[in-house]
Amino acid sequence: MADRKKTVEKQREIQQQQDRRDADKQKKGAKGGGSDDAAVQAGARPQPKDFPAQHLQKSGSEADLELAPRYLAPDYKGSGKLEGFAALITGADSGIGRAVAVLFAREGADVAIAYLSSTEDAEETARRVEAEGRRSLLLQGDVKDAKWCEQAVQRTVDTFGRLDVLVNNAAFQEHAESLEALDDRRIMETFDTNIGGYFRMARAALPHLKQGASIINTGSVTGLRGSAKLLDYSATKGAIHAFTKALASNLIERGIRVNAIAPGPVWTPLNPADRQAEDVATFGQGSDMKRAAQPEELSPAYVFLASPVCSGYITGIVLPVTGSVGAI
Predict the structure, then answer these.
(1) So which residues are the catalytic ones?
(2) Could you write out the DSSP letters of every residue in 91-142?
(3) 188-239 pLDDT per residue, tens
(4) How far apart are CA 24 and CA 177, in angstroms?
(5) How far apart are CA 198 and CA 246, in angstroms?
(6) Hey, CA dihedral for 111, 301, 194, 49, is it positive or negative?
(7) What's the rounded Cα separation, in Å, for the pair 175 and 275?
(8) CB neighbours of residue 281 within 10 Å
(9) Dihedral over alpha carbons 274, 200, 69, 23 (to 10 degrees)
(10) pTM for this entry
(11) Are 4 and 117 in contact (CB under 8 A)?
């Protein structure tokens, strides 16, 4: 409990330090708005383009968002692609993790919901999993803690009797105007959470994964293209992409597939907890589709990579779901 509180306090201190820098910059001149062009709508239902000018306190709660992210994917029909499976998803309390949990359950999987601090969000995810007719398990802890990672995996196996899919999704993000603004404490928090947590969870899960199991890592378009104001975050996402390919090579003879998904801008608590309110209002409008994605537009890709019937011949890929052309 104490370690989790320290992590949240540390992340909020980093956020507050950056907020002060941003406030100073805004005094010197406001930024311009986004494009007025119409957003591209190519999915099952129209999705929002504009967002409330809102800034959240870290680690960010989905329940506090003025515009709730869409994660239920009402047009997605399950067909038993993960029937009888058990999955463990980190960062599953909200955002992409919650959306993935819902669709995994719709496809027949029991889901362990790992999260750091947003208990209200995590409980809502659990309710949604159970509404799909599957079992849920709440696991609160910090992926920076190797012992907790081992305990989370063991509890999943003890509860569900197996582990078939690990989704590494937990992340810390805080923007910075320059490299000079990144002190070692901040760099280490980002690296230890984003790539260190993936190593620890995968290491803990491996003894329980059998042939046909898979690991799915959440990368980012920032790991493909870089991002001028997300230097440390982009570096960790690039590392995640490399880790995915290396681990895929390492595990291929064991019949365990390892893949990654690289999202573009997605409306989740991660971004309002990073950006200033006026930037949040136009979030994602720089993509070719001129809007951010909703979590329900990402989650089917995770189902595809988790299901042996869909992707049994696919390993070591980084699948871009970015809303833009030429992401690789």
Answers:
(1) 233
(2) TTTSHHHHHHHHHHHHTT-EEEEEESS-HHHHHHHHHHHHHTT--EEEEE--
(3) 999 999 999 999 999 999 999 999 999 999 999 999 999 999 999 999 999 9
(4) 12
(5) 13
(6) negative
(7) 7
(8) 16
(9) 0
(10) 0.84
(11) yes
